[in-house]
């Protein structure tokens, strides 16, 4: 009995240790060559600086109100594209042979998947904080608890979406071009129908129906409510549920794909 209890309590500890080990290994190249990280930090700022003024100019709302709507959408967009492309990194590792070496290590497939996905979350958090700090002088108001919860929801969403990206990469090994075909075909409809950049309320009926079944749209609305400090808004609950569902599906599918690949 005692042995069974000890084994069950040791499993989460070993899983956490494995995740930290994988995360440290994955972050090491980024820390050695910070140029790619710096470049990724600049990209959302370009989007904020170039698309934001156009959006402000096309609405009658004050700039601060427009930013309050727009900035959370940028953060979700960064998470969507950042974690959606990490499968390409896995394809590079497979072609270089490093992925096979990782599979023979005494690390669970789920820890390997979560550790790699978390590696993409770290720059995502930095990007989010940077975008918010730049938007503050232009009237963007911020709730600190909302910021913390908003980044947590993005992290949950990012782990799940990143796991799905890994699953796609494993499914197209040997046909790498297929990864980008599926990537572009799926991501842009998700982007447009989520209302990140432009509201879909004024769209035709079919577009509203498509937007209603797009889980990322619920994450976007939750981020807007959280950053505005409306922590008790029903939009927050909808976004949390959507992020958790994506994470659960992503980890289940991703872990299964990794085990098959092993």
Automatic annotation (TrEMBL):
CC annotations in GO: ATP-binding cassette (ABC) transporter complex
Domain ABC transmembrane type-2: 35-261
Predominant localisation class: membrane
Ranges that cross the membrane: 35-57, 69-91, 121-140, 146-170, 177-198, 236-254
Record's subcellular location: Cell membrane; Membrane
InterPro entries in UniProt: ABC2_TM, ABC2_TM_bact-type, ABC_2_transport, Nod_factor_ABC_transporter
Pfam family, one: ABC2_membrane
Alphabetic keyword roster: Antibiotic resistance, Cell membrane, Membrane, Transmembrane, Transmembrane helix, Transport
Keyword Transmembrane helix: yes
Gene Ontology MF: a single term: ABC-type transporter activity
PROSITE patterns to which the protein is assigned, alphabetical: ABC_TM2
Protein name according to UniProt: Transport permease protein
Domain of life: Bacteria
